[in-house]
Amino acid sequence: MAKPRGWLEWNAEQARAWIRVPGPTDDKYTRGVLGVMTGSKDYPGAAVLAVEAAARTGVGMVRYIGPGRASTLVLQRRPEVVLAAGRVQAWLLGSGINGSTRSDDVTRELDAALNAGLPTVCDAGALDRLGVAEADAARPIVITPHYRELAALLNDLPRAKQTTAEQIAAAPAEAAIRAARLLGVTVLLKGAVTRIASPTGARLTVSGAPAWLSTAGSGDVLGGILGALLATNSARVATDADALAALAATAALVHARAAELASAGGPITALDVAEAVPAVMRALLAVPAEGKH
Description:
Layout: E1 8-9, H1 12-16, E2 33-37, H2 45-57, E3 61-64, H3 68-77, E4 90-93, H4 104-114, E5 120-122, E6 141-143, H5 147-155, H6 165-170, H7 172-183, E7 186-189, E8 194-197, E9 203-206, H8 218-232, H9 234-239, H10 243-263, H11 270-285
Parallel strand pairs: 1-9, 2-3, 2-4, 4-5, 5-6, 6-7
Antiparallel strand pairs: 7-8, 8-9
């Protein structure tokens, strides 16, 4: 494990380096295929929001696997989405899935995706499938919990000191670092300041999102953005130990800036944020690299 570092605020120039721009020889497969297993009978909108955000972040293809109603709504919103199973470069799992009510079939599908060893975003109803044992090595997984979800996850670990959501809210940095170390995953802990900690010692923050972003479905949009970034950068994830943390911070920054753009000082919905993502990506790509003007 790398020596722990101090916390670093992620910026636009750093984010720009993690946005993969397609070249003339790319096709929909080489640009990255994201598998999405989100949404449920009770929360079909989570699937729509996640897929919408992923498509607008620049992934080559989205394969959606979910219940019939959610599939219908996804296809109505984004007819280019593929509903057939097939090869993917990354997974987005769990948004809009209730861990206590999901079917055995859904649980098996989540487990198969998690065990595939691909770069994976794990949220909400997939978090409990990480396993209750402490990890022996880092895994290519980013979890995106809020304080209550992280408390539940940590409390499931054997011999773990019981932690409340209030304690995590009071010391989010320490909680994120602890979870990354114990679970062997990169942690994106949502909050007024988003904190990203990895098992390799990366410590990143993203701030500046408008308070209006605290709205239903915003986490689903974040998951879609991050899933797309993992799919388009899957080769870098395989060779760079810090790639997951950098991509998680880039997703959080895009999410925050899309919210700021969509809000313009007023209320927003999650779909507003997703629709603002392409403009944010264009602006980030226009940021000059260091030393160039």
